[in-house]
Amino acid sequence: MSLVAAIALAALPPVLTMDDALRIFRERGFDLLIAEAQIAAAEGDATAARAFANPQLSASAGRSFDYDPRACPGCSATAWSIGLTDPSALSDLISGKRGLRIEVARAALAAAKRSRDDALRTLSLQVRQAVLDGALQQSQLALAREFAESTERTRALDERRLRSGAVSDAELARAEVAALQAQQGVDLAEQALVAARLQIAFLLGVRDPAPEEFTIDPAFFDRALPEEGPALDILAREALGSRPDLLAASAQEARAEAALALARRQRVPDVALSAQYAQEGSGQNALEPPTLTFGVQLPLPIFYRQAGEIARAEADLRAQRVQQ
Question: Which long-range contacts (CB under 8 A, 24 or more apart) does 65-70 make?
């Protein structure tokens, strides 16, 4: 499912439970969709790191002018050649550069997955808090409406009592002010509920500026709290051992270490091997008898030896270690 298609699924159930909110968030939460896309990109990088460079095939043909091939047996005025080149694939494997690239890509993929898990952990908490706040605002609105109805009944009663002379004008005025204040409380509670619903809709991937209204199921208020929670030292130990953000930081450090090793290994020149067959005629007097040529090509590391890449990789590794 594409990112745009997922966001387009904006309809929320008319009654939203906590389980529904978490399920919808896992399916189309905007930040989770971005994290999934980053994982897909890291998987693509890992696939590219495992790949071998394709060999290069070359061919050429030509003709010699002002030359009579009939002057000697086996002579020809047509020249042709065919060649095959290995663009450092074998050298890349033997030198260990391919293995280091794979290690870098694997660590980056692991970090992306851990970052997705951390986003799920932190944003799920935000979703829970938003749903809880929405349910609270919903209950406060119901209470405000009930209070407004009570003050309105009191105002109406005082108005009838005023006609019978049981209360004064000042007492009726106080009742009217209380009724107006209660109605203002209803308006404020309605605005707070709308804001809470918009926050929930945003976290659940709804991008409609005017999403459909929904009711939050307050049933989770009836859940009993556990009699005794785990000890703080147990929670701290479990957090340090399994928190996704800490595991992601460790994976990023491993990636930086592998990237530094790869940058240093890049100082080893890449050796390109080639083989070529060429001929222009086949006799003893041919311009170029059948010839098989093997070649080796490598850059001379005289002027530059990956100093910039190594410095950048070292800085990246220091930054990752500082964040631990």
Answer: 67/287, 69/281
Amino acid letter, residue 29: G
Quote the CA–CA distance of 118 and 132 in Å, as a whole number.
21
pLDDT at position 177 is: 93
Q: Which region, left, alpha or beta, applies to residue 57 given φ > 0 means left and ψ of -120 to 50 means alpha?
A: beta
Pair 52, 80: CB distance under 8 Å: no
Query: pLDDT value at position 47?
Result: 96
How far apart are the C-alpha atoms of 7 and 35, rounded to whole Å? 15
> What is the chain's mean pLDDT, rounded?
87
DSSP letter for each residue of 30-62: HHHHHHHHHHHHHHHHHHHHHPPPPPEEEEEEE
User: Which structural domains are found in the chain, ordered by start?
Assistant: 3-64+74-221+237-322 (1.20.1600.10)
pLDDT band at 209 (very low <50, low <70, confident <90, very high): low
Report the pLDDT averaged over residues 148-164.
Answer: 88
Q: What is the pLDDT of residues 247-285, one digit of tens each?
A: 899 999 999 999 999 999 999 999 999 999 999 888 777
Q: How far apart are the C-alpha atoms of 114 and 24, rounded to whole Å?
A: 21
Alpha carbon of 184 to those of 39, 176, 268, 307: distances in Å? 49, 12, 76, 69
pLDDT for 16-25, tens place per residue?
888 888 888 8
